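Forwarding the complex inputs:
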Amino acid sequence: MSAFVTALICPRCQLQHDPQTIQNLCVACQSPLLVEYDLDRLRTAVSKETISERTPTMWRYREFLPVGDPTQIVSLGEGFTPLLNISSITRAWGLTQVWLKDDGLNPTGSFKARGASCGISKAKEFGIRAVALPTAGNAGGAWACYGAAAGIRVHVAMPKDAPAINQLECRLYGADLQLVDGLISDAGKKIAQGIREHGWFDAATLKEPYRIEGKKTLGLEIAEQLGWQLPDAIVYPAGGGVGIIGIWRALKQLRAIGWVSGKLPRLIVVQAEGCAPLVKAFEEQQPESEFWPNARTFASGLRVPKALGDFLVLQAVRETGGTALAVSDADCARMMRLLAERAGIFAAPEGAATLAAVERLQEEGKIFSDERVVIINTGSALKYPEAMAEALAGQM
Amino acid sequence: MSAFVTALICPRCQLQHDPQTIQNLCVACQSPLLVEYDLDRLRTAVSKETISERTPTMWRYREFLPVGDPTQIVSLGEGFTPLLNISSITRAWGLTQVWLKDDGLNPTGSFKARGASCGISKAKEFGIRAVALPTAGNAGGAWACYGAAAGIRVHVAMPKDAPAINQLECRLYGADLQLVDGLISDAGKKIAQGIREHGWFDAATLKEPYRIEGKKTLGLEIAEQLGWQLPDAIVYPAGGGVGIIGIWRALKQLRAIGWVSGKLPRLIVVQAEGCAPLVKAFEEQQPESEFWPNARTFASGLRVPKALGDFLVLQAVRETGGTALAVSDADCARMMRLLAERAGIFAAPEGAATLAAVERLQEEGKIFSDERVVIINTGSALKYPEAMAEALAGQM
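Prediction (whole assembly, two chains):
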């Protein structure tokens, strides 16, 4: 077990769970569990200087991660992705300090590698032999990848109209891939059945506590790459929202140990107009989102009608003075072209959505010219050949 | 101009060319030119320790690279890719120290990003406004990408049956893409015509001196990542062979400044059975290769019937006591599956070819069990959806 993990806590009912045993959701209220660390001990055990000398992967922050035995870490070079200055694009809008965190340069071409690397490593430490998850595409590829590297069997269910590339990668990694005639929720039912019948470990989004810890490294890296200064805003494309919850927790942990100081950045959540449950809940000042019927957007990672961690995302946004907004597919497509043509960045439509959001927030006076802004590109456009073609056709 | 570049030298006729002006091939004999550095001054100007503290991209080795003004560097996070231990696979063949250099984790999903980053940066330093190149696919994408980031117009010609993904990426980066009814040699003719008519800079493989310098960083990284110890062998999939020439030069430069010592690794070149001009020339002890008619292999990067730098590749292999061998497409496909299923590595068919070569060389007694071997994966399978499907279908 990790030297620094103290407990798994339910953020809704505060019930503590034993981190030394395998856990999924809170046994009392079925909320996702969050990992707590002994930050006082962590502070004395590691320094910024020590971390800066380590291999540039997300595991350079291993004291902030839940895997205790380093030999259990399954790493393929994930994380420590580039933070690229894109002010050449945003200067036209009066913004001179904007960076894009390019998480397309991860194994499997998406930020899902962070969650899978951490989740699979922890599963390996627990001796788990088989994991299962429903997916819209990229998470399935990432877990299939890390499961293969770890020798853990991965059972994936995805809608049969999921991108061909995600089906191919799951099969090439040797995962058990089941195609479902329906939505990701139907894939979820298929997986739940397998879990009941075969005892697979449930690795669906936020149904195990460790995927989020991998995503947390996004926040740690942004802080380190900006010289341990916090930006004024971080703009994140939220489907399940695991990444923004992770970033929020990472920055709070860094502040608690004194590595960064001052106000946390405003955490800004972007969704698609065709599927914006978090935006609606934010605007209506609700603590949770409602299921969004007929979710539609070409940014497949944003096609999440109701996220299990919605209340945490909304809390992160509100606590930091952030906001939530929805952008159109046409604007995503336009920003995919702009990022490629002007900066050589091959962004997923979800990543492009964050740039569309920045443009709008500046217009609306919600981001100012001297502010330091980081946007997150969650994947490579290579994982989205269909979206690329649509962006080019200008059909959006 | 770079602080350390002293000359551009023709390796065939030894004629020196001025590095302060724009150069292509040797004006006397039409050979590729190689960049020479003042290694004595370089040795005193930078240390291993300084380099280890820099950002993990190939530009951490900037003293070994030809761009003098750091503001001209066009970087998207290329290089310093992971070196992954794959002994879990090779142990079955008695090999316990084998690493894969995963260059699929570059911008554009291929090692071509190294050459393009260096070549475009140097073109920018020279004030060049338009470059042109023929391509089988990945180089076109990489130059389109870095050209977009630099604000340099990129003219690309590729066979109209080149992978759809390479066409899409060139167009999304805003390059001028011309599809040619024919082979890459026909694309070359199209580009040559544009160069004559419009004065574009010729950026075809080895026709300008700087692409190879970017590839050189592969060798620098392998040395650093192995703790400045040289491996016993490096296995490289050779199409144009630029990478292996670069690795050879990098290691000789490192030895000249005393950062590494001992024998250079045996440089081993792998080609496809359906296109093996370098292997044939090596076996027949010829100094150059002959044009390979009807080149056929699903590893499109290896479909190069005659490389401009063939004599340099053969010299590198012979001088280091290496060898050259051809593998079948079926073996590449099998190794794509093996790397994915057993190590979570999503290798291009060219990268998979190197693992097939290692298996054979061990069987033939040309690699020994206690040797340290590095194989190069030149790209991500994400750039090869057709090859992925074929590998899965077992149709090879």
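Residues 145 and 170 of chain A are 8 Å apart (CA to CA).
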